[in-house]
Automatic annotation (TrEMBL):
Pirin N-terminal domain span: 22-120
Family (UniProt): Belongs to the pirin family.
Source species taxonomy: Eukaryota, Fungi, Dikarya, Ascomycota, Pezizomycotina
Protein residues bound to Fe cation: 56, 58, 100, 102
Protein name per the record: Pirin
Signal peptide: none
Keywords, sorted A to Z: Iron, Metal-binding
Amino acid sequence: MSIPRAIRMAFFAIEQSEGAGARVRRSIGTPKLRNFSPFLMLDYFNVPFGAGFPDHPHRGQETITYMIDGAVDHEDFAGNKGSLETGDLQFMTAGRGIVHAEMPREREDGKPNVGLQLWVDLPKKLKYCEPRYRDLSAAEIPTVDVDEGKVHVKVISGQSHGVDSVQELAYTPVWFLDIMIKPGGRIAQNLPVGWNAFAFTLEGTTTFGSPRKQQVVSKYHNVVFEQEGDTVIAEVDESAEEESRFVLVAGLPLDQKVVQYGPFVVNTPEEVYQAMRDYQGFKNGFERAKDWESEIGKKMAGW
């Protein structure tokens, strides 16, 4: 018999400035919710053309970028480049070191580019692995409909109602589901026991929790669930005027210390100082950063 997960807390993600002219709603990586292992940061970003995230480094974590509306181009110091369109994802493993840029595409309608970026910690033994990318296009993502078609689930990573994702895209085990619920719809989604889990609400109003203890949540909230239990229940009232949409994410907690300084995520203060020295000295993974500048950073940020 399934055991519903209770809600630990739900809070609104306040918009703030980030990068070069970008706006983000950060809900993990703030005093409210920090180091929710294996999750380090979650940003809902809203980036107009001409703004973005020009050349910057990473070490020791993975990033999952999900384009909700619009497109973003990326480029790194190893010559990797590409684009994410609406519905596409990129899983980037920084490992020992990478420097890259992420810049929005200009849209004919002038609208900003909207998406999510989740930072996931790497296990200690993989902190210094070689960087890699794995892309997942919108067309590749399996889907499943439940509750007589009132609920639609994109199975980006993990499992939902008998449907498995294409493949494991991150080193750290993570489930990532995009769920849409029409008025009157309900879903009971199983999650791995003992994993940390949260939902970030994108549209509409969703009721989370078991019938005995429910909470109604509007958009741009992070709903953090207790670790106990194996099921998250979500529904939308039949009288609602619009459908709801949220991402449900769960990850295997890592039993390790997190020491973070900006884009460097390691396990000891000494490793932070070493990361800074390596980046500034172009060594131990950052050799290719010397004299490198991204073309998209120069072109799109007006450099």
